[in-house]
Design a protein that fits this description.
Blueprint lengths: L3 E4 L3 H14 L2 E6 L7 H5 L2 E4 L13 H11 L3 E3 L9 H9 L3 E2 L4 H7 L2 H10 L19 E5 L9 E3 L5 H12 L3 E5 L5 E9 L5 E3 L3 E7 L2 E7 L6 H18 L3 E9 L5 E7 L6 H8 L3 H9 L15 E8 L1 E2 L5 E2 L2 E2 L2 E3 L3 E3 L8 E6 L6 E2 L6 E9 L2 H13 L2 E3 L5 H8 L2 H4 L7 H4 L11 H21 L19 E7 L2 E9 L5 E8 L22 E6 L3 E6 L2 E10 L2 E6 L2 E7 L14 E3 L4 E6 L6 E2 L4 E7 L2 E6 L4 E5 L7 E2 L4 E7 L1
């Protein structure tokens, strides 16, 4: 029996496992790196052990020896690997069992088989499961396009699409260098769906599938929206998929919770992709529609217990999950870092366990004040909507995301809302190329000119009200009150589309007499005369119903609107029913910025230098790959903006760099 369980992971998945452990009476142990000393998963565990080794995952969470030593020190008799790389590591699984501890995962021998996707495909094909043809030698490839994949690894790392034979050899070499793994090629299928069947198998021979999950909306081969059931799967196809999943599981001797993943085309044909041996991020949607706690079943199986259900549970309604990630979709999914000043999702019914009735479930790895670094996966939280129908679930989820207060870190929230509200998504017309076909979903949620202007006005009014409240004298006077005619009050912000100036006039009664917002040329910011009101006020009639430092109620053209304003330092986060906008107040007298050396290439994000492909003095072409940065488990290329010669290269592989740090200097030809 499991008495005390250590979770060899962090963030949301550790909190999820701890929640079920508390429910069934199992003591919990967390492990943490130096950067995670105050993380929520650490404070929620009964015991916590510092791993040592600093903050890098390779020196902490991915060190199996440190994890096992921590378990022994804390008196744990079982280890749960979470859903990171350790959950798929056969060596780590064997070390846990060799240490006389209970391993909450697939057997080490099975993990050894699954580590090679090539071997796994051969085994399941022999069992009668459809698979795509596989080529391990690039010279064997005769049909294009093809998808290059590493034999090991997960999360889309190293995967590349090649559409002609000219670039095949170079792409294969890049994947090998990036992943350090064997490589294989298979036909690249366009406009297909990514469907997976969650399963659980016990040691007594029972294998139970839990319907299917649709995971087709992806970026960089990584899922961002998942749902169950799939709008493309009818009962007959579901039965075929579940039968194939059972065959695959039995063929490799799998035990535990996992997912069998398939590609599905419009004709209803499907092909096996892989068997993922972990409790996947999207397990929450399955828990909603099935009513079962999958972590509880996972613990039961690891203790040698028998599954309590005779077969697949019935599907109850529809559930959709989104992954809220610290990244900027509009800028090539650039990871974002910083302090999460506020994270507040409205109307949440529960967290980290199955809901008793339809509603919103939030499983988050962060709280207010959490610091988001570049070392780990960018997912902040997953938000799930469970409703009687798919349309209701999508509407509920989009509304909750729109009203979420997410301040301090750039996230993909706006894109998720636009996808959920998109006509094609609502119609169930999704596949793995959805984001490529619908670039309109990358637009900011708060995109209308009037909505942005109203948010700017609210930020200015809230700022003035906050200053009035803290004034040492005459604080009872209304903000902006004058007893003689006066000019407009103004503030200058750096907004979503660049600098803007906000101006407004108050009358003797403290009422808004007029207001305006105009774009500002950045070169004007240090010039005299900025702040003079335009002669024409073309904004809708607006009345200030009430304004304080955190909330502004406006009557705009006869419609009452409430805007929440959260100010941190010089930054105002303005949330309204239409979306959110971030405004940084600019100084009227900014300090001069140091001039960068011509040809300087600076880091676009914090991270670690992974590969350096050039040397000083080397001549490079425009667009040539110079080096790569690794941040949040993804590799980001740095290309030469023009032809030239590498004059300076102050970084080396393994170096940690911050945003704006010099990477190289390129002298133009």
């Amino acid at each position: 029996m499991i008495r005390r369980l250590l979770v060899a992971d962090r963030g949301e998945i550790a909190r999820r496992v701890f929640a079920t452990c508390r429910l069934v009476g199992i003591e919990t142990v967390a492990v943490y790196s130096d950067a995670d000393a105050d993380a929520p998963h650490v404070t929620e565990a009964d015991y916590a052990v510092r791993l040592g080794g600093g903050s890098a995952p390779a020196n902490t969470y991915l060190r199996g020896d440190l994890i096992i030593a921590a378990a022994k020190r804390a008196g744990a008799n079982a280890i749960h690997p979470g859903n990171g790389p350790l959950s798929e590591d056969p060596g780590f699984a064997a070390e846990v069992t060799d240490a006389a501890m209970i391993w909450v995962g697939a057997p080490a021998k099975t993990l050894g088989t699954l580590h090679s996707k090539i071997e796994t495909k051969a085994i399941v094909a022999e069992a009668g499961v459809p698979v795509l043809p596989t080529a391990t030698d690039p010279d064997q490839v005769t049909i294009f396009p093809v998808l290059i994949k590493p034999s090991g690894g997960a999360g889309g790392a190293g995967m590349r699409v090649v559409r002609d034979p000219v670039t095949l050899a170079e792409a294969v070499a890049s994947t090998r260098q990036e992943t350090g793994d064997d490589v294989f090629c298979e036909p690249y299928l366009e406009n297909v769906r990514h469907i997976e069947v969650p399963i659980i198998a016990d040691t007594h021979g029972a294998v139970v599938p839990f319907g299917e999950r649709e995971c087709s909306v992806q970026r960089r081969y990584q899922k961002i929206i998942e749902e169950t059931p799939s709008p493309a799967v009818d009962p007959a196809l579901r039965e075929q998929l579940c039968r194939a999943a059972i065959l695959a599981v039995r063929a490799v001797g799998y035990v535990g919770v996992g997912s069998v993943e398939f590609l599905l085309d419009d004709a209803g044909d499907f092909w096996f992709v892989e068997l993922t041996p972990s409790l996947q991020v999207e397990h929450a949607v399955t828990e909603c529609v099935s009513g079962y706690d999958l972590v509880r079943l996972q613990l039961l199986v690891s203790e040698g217990g028998t599954l309590p259900m005779p077969g697949p549970p019935p599907i109850r309604g529809h559930a959709i999950e989104v992954r809220i990630c610290a990244e900027d979709p509009a800028y090539a999914w650039l990871p974002a870092t910083g302090t999460l000043h506020r994270f507040k999702v409205p109307d949440v019914a529960g967290s980290f366990r199955p809901l008793p009735q339809p509603g919103l479930r939030l499983d988050a790895g962060v709280v207010d004040g959490s610091v988001v670094g570049a070392q780990h996966d960018p997912m902040l939280a997953k938000l799930v909507a469970w409703a009687p129908t798919r349309q209701e679930a999508a509407r509920m989820l989009a509304s909750a995301l729109t009203r979420t207060e997410l301040h301090g870190v750039v996230a993909n929230r706006d894109l998720l809302v636009r996808v959920l509200r998109h006509g094609a998504f609502r119609a169930g017309d999704v596949d793995t190329g959805f984001l490529d076909r619908h670039p309109e979903v990358f637009a900011p949620l708060l995109s209308s000119v009037d909505a942005v202007r109203i948010s700017c006005l609210a930020a200015a009014l809230a700022g003035a009200a906050a200053r009035r409240t803290s004034a040492p004298v005459l604080r009872s006077l209304p903000s902006g009150w004058r007893n003689v005619p006066s000019g407009s009050q103004t503030a200058v912000y750096d907004g979503p589309a660049g600098p803007v100036e906000v101006g407004y006039r108050m009358n003797r009664h403290g009422e808004l007499a007029g207001w305006w917002v105009r774009a500002v040329d950045p070169e004007e910011l240090d010039l005299a005369g900025l702040g003079q009101a335009p002669t024409l006020d073309d904004h809708p009639p607006t009345t200030v119903v009430q304004a304080d430092g955190s909330r502004v109620d406006l009557d705009v053209n006869g419609i009452r609107l409430t805007l929440k304003v959260h100010r941190v330092g010089e930054v105002s986060y303005v949330d309204s029913p239409e979306g959110s906008v971030t405004l940084r107040e600019l100084s009227r007298f900014p300090l001069p910025a140091p001039e960068a050396t011509e040809g300087s290439l600076i880091a676009p994000l914090p991270g670690a230098v992974r590969r350096v492909l050039v040397v000083p003095g080397q001549r490079v072409r425009a667009g040539e790959l110079l080096l790569t940065l690794e941040a949040m488990k993804l590799e980001h290329p740095v290309h030469a903006p023009s032809a030239g010669v590498v004059a300076s290269l102050p970084v080396q592989p393994g170096a940690e760099v911050d945003t704006g740090e010099l990477l190289a200097i390129l002298d133009p030809e």
